[in-house]
Amino acid sequence: MTDVQTRTDADPQPERAGSTSTRRVVLLSAGALGAGAVLTACGTDTSGTNPNGTDFDSNPVPAGSTGAQADSAGGNAGTVLVAASEVAVGGGVIKGDYVITQPEEGTFKAFSKICTHQGCPVTEVNDGSILCKCHNSAFSIKDGAPTAGPAAKPLAETKVQLDGDNVVAA
Ligand code: FES
């Protein structure tokens, strides 16, 4: 049988004397936990989930997305990603769920636009780099490798090829 202690009004209540400081300790502890949560959110942790709640380390494409990566995996090659004329040599464009680049004339690449740091979509291709403004990571337009910022893993690549005037999923 378990020993249960009960308290009566006649019992002394020693915690009352220190109740103010006890509350302070609780509040300070809660504040420290909150600060820890904020630091974690802004840290360099490269694991976690993307905004859609899926694990972007193993599934860097947003849930429900369509396009080359899903099509390549599903065997629907030939999906048009972009007109080749829209992709500048040495640059790239963000279309749908992908970043399509042309690091050298006639060589096209496509990557998931989901940043491998904490899952923000990349927002810009500039000066040979794909940029994520959430925490300022940069990725190479040649292979999607991280070149700056907290991201440690490359953007997921989708194989593409030229089909007439279009860049399509391979
Ligand atoms: S999500 Fe942090 S740099 Fe992209």
TrEMBL record:
<dbReference type="GO" id="GO:0046872">
    <property type="term" value="F:metal ion binding"/>
</dbReference>
<feature type="region of interest" description="Disordered">
    <location>
        <begin position="46"/>
        <end position="74"/>
    </location>
</feature>
<dbReference type="GO" id="GO:0051537">
    <property type="term" value="F:2 iron, 2 sulfur cluster binding"/>
</dbReference>
<feature type="domain" description="Rieske">
    <location>
        <begin position="79"/>
        <end position="169"/>
    </location>
</feature>
<keyword id="KW-0479">Metal-binding</keyword>
<dbReference type="InterPro" id="IPR017941">
    <property type="entry name" value="Rieske_2Fe-2S"/>
</dbReference>
<dbReference type="InterPro" id="IPR036922">
    <property type="entry name" value="Rieske_2Fe-2S_sf"/>
</dbReference>
<keyword id="KW-0001">2Fe-2S</keyword>
<dbReference type="Pfam" id="PF00355">
    <property type="entry name" value="Rieske"/>
</dbReference>
<dbReference type="GO" id="GO:0016705">
    <property type="term" value="F:oxidoreductase activity, acting on paired donors, with incorporation or reduction of molecular oxygen"/>
</dbReference>
<keyword id="KW-1015">Disulfide bond</keyword>
<feature type="region of interest" description="Disordered">
    <location>
        <begin position="1"/>
        <end position="23"/>
    </location>
</feature>
<feature type="compositionally biased region" description="Polar residues">
    <location>
        <begin position="46"/>
        <end position="57"/>
    </location>
</feature>
<keyword id="KW-0411">Iron-sulfur</keyword>
<keyword id="KW-0408">Iron</keyword>
<comment type="function">
    <text>Iron-sulfur subunit of the cytochrome bc1 complex, an essential component of the respiratory electron transport chain required for ATP synthesis. The bc1 complex catalyzes the oxidation of menaquinol and the reduction of cytochrome c in the respiratory chain. The bc1 complex operates through a Q-cycle mechanism that couples electron transfer to generation of the proton gradient that drives ATP synthesis.</text>
</comment>
<dbReference type="GO" id="GO:0004497">
    <property type="term" value="F:monooxygenase activity"/>
</dbReference>
<protein>
    <recommendedName>
        <fullName>Cytochrome bc1 complex Rieske iron-sulfur subunit</fullName>
    </recommendedName>
</protein>
<feature type="compositionally biased region" description="Basic and acidic residues">
    <location>
        <begin position="1"/>
        <end position="14"/>
    </location>
</feature>
<dbReference type="InterPro" id="IPR014349">
    <property type="entry name" value="Rieske_Fe-S_prot"/>
</dbReference>
